[in-house]
Specification:
By secondary structure, this protein is α+β, with helices and mostly antiparallel strands. The protein is built from 19 helices and 14 strands. This is BTB/POZ domain-containing protein 17.
């Protein structure tokens, strides 16, 4: 999640070493000269060339072009002396701007102008340092001047630093930036991180910066990870109170809350105490009434009259004990482990007292029968050891009550894998979904090296998992 989520140290600097086009051409020419001669060798003085190019930039020797950087509503002009060849070789935009010109004036936003000299230095050495506050302006500059490699590098930096610690938060602003830029890949990465770590986001300073469009996008998702639907309603109410969006937005947001996932006693409470709900009661009255009906009858009977195949009746990834269990596996590279836990049969008040028992099995190096070693004197122990190393982590979740009649409901098993960052916060790095027809979680931690104590998947040499059981209702008889 690769390192895809959960806060890293604030102020951490990430360096991208992207070899400039000039060095790529030089190295390619050198390697082609070697041919197939076994006695040939490559003498590489690229670092020396990079150092000399950096000195050329800092000292300004033999410059032939002047860049003047201006910002709106400011008389300040930043002057940078450059070598046209190095800029035009790597950017077709600069190639066009500097055609038959030795001086050009560029208009840049203040945050981009402040980093423009750092940006130009990249043309000379192919290396740049980035922190959280600099990611957007550097990405904008790379995009504007068609520096594709740098743009990819900054995008990758953003994806691996979603969970880095920052005072005001940054993932929401990165999403809004990606939306403006039309960067679908970055948008989806931001949305996934926000959805999988929503409880943390809702309790941070970022929550009030969420735009109307982002809020609607988040509430439409079933993969939100949070304590309960009631927690989500409370956070949405706070967002509405502080941001005061237009009435159509408020109505759409309130209608995206999954009221059947809230218990009757809690529904009565928010009806009585919520100022937002009081103001927009008519907008959600039908949903509230339907939720109370859902809780008053068995799901099977309810499904005869209402369509339960819609998002309103699909649980999200709730972390409360009624829906699953946390599982911390110490020294996960050693032995097989097992866990038994209980969940409620379903979200309906009709089923909350009914419990389901589940068994989970974790194996760090599971092998199919066909690949398991045969321990005998005829097979060297080294060969047996190599076979064991071919195994992969495996997780199986099965019901201990398979003989019961579960007409009208199937169970989706969701597994969260967490990693820790600053201030002991644990963030979701991977989410795996397994439906009733399958017990085993496929592709489980295929890229994780659990043998290494320094593995990013381990927290103090332990694997942090959370298993969630989600009952999914379906109609046996067409709703009238």
């Amino acid at each position: 999640m690769d390192r895809r989520t959960w806060p890293w140290h604030s102020g951490v600097m990430r360096r991208f070493c992207v070899v400039p086009l000039l060095l790529v051409l030089v190295e390619a020419a050198q390697k082609s000269d070697l041919g197939g001669d076994a006695s040939a060798a490559l003498i590489n003085h690229s670092p020396m060339l990079i150092q000399r190019l950096q000195d050329l930039f800092h000292k300004g020797n033999s410059t032939d072009t002047i860049l003047r950087i201006r910002t709106a509503n400011s008389d300040e002009v930043k002057v940078i002396h450059v070598h046209q060849l190095l800029l035009t070789l790597q950017s077709d935009i600069f190639d066009g701007l500097l055609l038959n010109q030795s001086e050009v004036t560029l208009q840049e936003p203040a945050e981009c102008a402040a980093l423009f000299e750092k940006f130009i230095r990249y043309f000379y050495c192919g290396e740049i340092s980035v922190n959280l506050n600099q990611a957007i302006p550097l990405h904008r500059l790379a995009n504007k001047y068609h520096m594709t490699a740098l743009q990819r590098g900054v995008t990758e930096y953003m994806k691996t630093h979603f969970s880095s610690e920052s005072a005001q938060g940054h993932v929401v602003s990165w999403y809004h930036y990606a939306l403006r830029m039309g960067d679908i890949n970055l948008q989806e990465s931001c949305l996934k991180f926000l959805a999988w770590n929503l409880s943390t986001i809702m309790s941070s300073n970022e929550w009030v910066t969420v735009s109307d469009k982002l809020m609607v996008s988040l509430l439409q998702r079933s993969d939100l990870v949070l304590q309960s639907e009631l927690e989500l309603f409370s956070a949405v109410e706070e967002w509405i109170s502080k941001n005061k969006p237009d009435a159509p937005v408020i109505e759409k947001v309130l209608r995206s809350i999954r009221y059947p996932m809230i218990s009757p006693s809690q529904l009565f409470q928010i009806q009585k105490e919520s100022a937002v709900l009081a103001s927009y009661h008519n907008s959600v009255q039908d949903l509230m009434f339907q939720a109370f009906q859902f809780h008053s009858a068995s799901p099977l009977h309810f499904a005869k009259y209402f369509d339960v195949n819609c998002s309103m009746f699909v649980p999200r990834n709730y972390l409360s004990p009624s829906w699953g269990s946390q599982w911390i596996i110490n020294n996960p590279a050693r032995d097989d482990r097992s866990l038994t836990f209980q969940t409620q049969l379903g979200p309906s008040n009709h089923d909350t007292s009914k419990k389901m028992t589940w068994n989970a099995l974790f194996s760090p190096r599971w092998l199919p029968v066909s690949l398991r070693p045969v321990y005998s004197e005829s097979i060297p122990s080294s060969s047996q050891s190599n076979r064991l190393e071919e195994g992969k982590p495996r997780l199986v979740v099965t019901s201990a009550m398979s003989g019961m009649d579960f007409a009208g409901v199937t169970f989706q098993k969701t597994l969260l894998v967490g990693v820790k960052r600053q201030q002991s916060k644990v963030f979701v790095k991977h989410v795996y979904n397994v439906h009733q027809s399958t017990d085993e979680v496929f592709d489980f931690l295929l890229q994780a090296d659990l043998q290494k104590r320094t593995s990013e998947y381990l927290i103090d040499n332990s694997l942090h998992l959370h298993i969630i059981i989600k009952p999914i209702y379906h109609s046996l008889i067409k709703a009238k």
